[in-house]
Amino acid sequence: MVARTVDLRSDTVTKPTEAMRAAMANAEVDDDVLGYDPTARRLELEVARIAGKEAALFVPSGTMGNLISVLTHCQVRGSEIILGDSSHIHIYENGGISTIGGVHPRTVKNNDDGTMDIELIEAAIRDPSFEICFPTTRLICLENSHAHSGGRCLSPEYVDRVGELAKKYGLKLHIDGARIFNASVALGVPVQRLVQAADSVSICLSKGLGAPVGSVIVGSESFIAKAKILRKTLGGGMRQVGVLCAAAYIALQENVGKLEGDHKRAKTLAEGLNKIKGLKVDLDSVQTNIVYCDILESVNITETKLCKMLEGYGILVLPEGPLRIRFVIHHQISDSDVQHSLSCIQLAVNGAPNKK
Ligand SMILES: Cc1ncc(COP(=O)(O)O)c(C=O)c1O
Known about the structure:
By secondary structure, the chain is an alpha/beta fold. It has helices at 18-26, 38-51, 62-73, 88-92, 96-99, 118-124, 156-168, 180-187, 191-194, 221-233, 242-255, 259-274, 303-312, 335-351; strands at residues 6-7, 55-59, 79-84, 104-108, 136-143, 172-177, 200-204, 215-219, 279-280, 290-295, 315-316, 318-319, 324-328.
């Protein structure tokens, strides 16, 4: 038994706060499939307002938010979308756009900062005059912040340029904004401005904002009307869903203001890790709440072994590929948790015999 556990596996591991639990217990609810749940309505209106879009729809998860958005834009089977080769939609969502939606992914290389080169995106757009062979490009997807690049942020100028490109070719632009609030806080740019060029955005409330469940997709009235039908098709229409939306609303009210502190703690953790012999963090990559840490070959510990060793100290982290582990900060991690974790990591990496 360890005396203290610090859970840095993900920002999805947070526990609902007392305020969230109270809001859930007291939520005013009705049948949301029929469109009558007032607490769901209130949350959707608020997220639509923050994102500067006409309408919004609560969905059970970020994965379903992305899937519904892609399929709403690509109603013809065999449509093609352009997305980053390390995007969450491409790597971590079971290929749902293909298996469920008949949508073909065309990947473009993600740069280290989460962008894709505009020229490469343009080159990936299919020439409609050869539709006898080519699938039809219908959508470009971006991710902000970009998880696989360590939570780096796409600037509004970059998103605008992709938006202009999409317009030029008659395509739609979707943003996987699972952590758009982290990007907004890190860049000091309102969410509304960051997603101005997008036709749809999927926003997670159960990541950095700490809600127990749920995402919201935003877009035009007509986009959301179609999305609502698809949500039902996929089994994501829920009845007295206000119980969940009540907690998500609290997350939105109380936790956006805490993200700046999360980002500061992520920086402190990254700087501390960099001082531990055998570990290396690219400090420039730490813009939000995610820290990727490389294990140098000289210490002779694999990423799985190090995660196991840290677990023994009560420090929970996840492997992120060969000789790399990841730490994610969230609102239930304190300054003292960060310092305690650094001491334990120091012991695990440099203090233990028989490291292999
Ligand atoms: C960037 C990004 N998009 C989408 C998702 C999917 O969210 P969910 O786990 O709610 O399905 C995640 C989950 O971690 C994510 O990191």
